[in-house]
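Appendix B, example 12.
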Amino acid sequence: MPISVSRRIKKLIAKMAQLGDVRVLYHGLALAPRLILHVASVAALAGMFAACVPATRFEEAQSASEVELAGRRRAEAALAETRQKLDTALAQLGEREQKLAATEQTVSESKLESSVAVKERDEATGLVSQLRGDLARVGDNLRSYAQEKAELERSLQAAQARKLSLERSEARTVALARLTRDLTSALGDRVTSGDVQLDVKDGRVVLSAPPELWFDETGALRTGMNGVLSAVTRVLALHADSALELSVPGPGSEQRAPALSSALSARGVAGSRVTVRSGTKLAAPSLTEPSNAGAEPARDSAAVELSFSVG
């Protein structure tokens, strides 16, 4: 059909060239509907042909591309899986190499430790032998040291006892010196005038005075000794750890000792701090006048002593 149409078109052009413009126009107008129809038919057929052929090829190309894409995806998946397996294998290989290296290092260390242990064992054996010899010598030395230690301990104990005794003696000496100082200060002129005497005997401070200075003919305390008794009381109060021992010798001591003790008690001296020396009789003080008040008692040569002790 396309060939006949082209022939008619060519014939129309030839006639138009032979017959002139009117004929050409007439034949053109007469043939126009047919020509248009044939041209339309040809165009339609050509369009259908053109439309049918590319669609089929497109579908085939699309199918082929999809198949190729699917194959490529499968290949990529397989490749990724292969890469993953390869990475896993490489990781396992690295771990095994590390384990092998660690094993080799452990073996090397074990060999080194074994050689070191053998060497240390030999050295320890030699050291044990040496120590046994040293121990035997030390045992002998220890026995001699033990004897020396026992002697030194006895000497140390004796020295400590001596030191303690000296410290006590020193403290006692200091206390006696302070007591003597305070008695001297409290008695004042009575000591310097010679009425009373202070002395240290057997670790005690002794205040002594003649009996006639303490007592009158009746055995009562003289009022002139009140100052001495007050001084003794102050010193006893100042030295709370001190004690007093009375010694009133001679005839009439049965009255004189209680009178002196009572006078101290009246001034606040506790009876537990005052004792009477053995041999001096202590009788209760009498409230009545003695029957021999008018008689003159005999003079005593022994002195009345107030003996102070410390600590």
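Residues 21-187 form the longest helix (167 residues). Helices lie at 2-19, 21-187, 189-192, 211-214, 226-238, 253-266.
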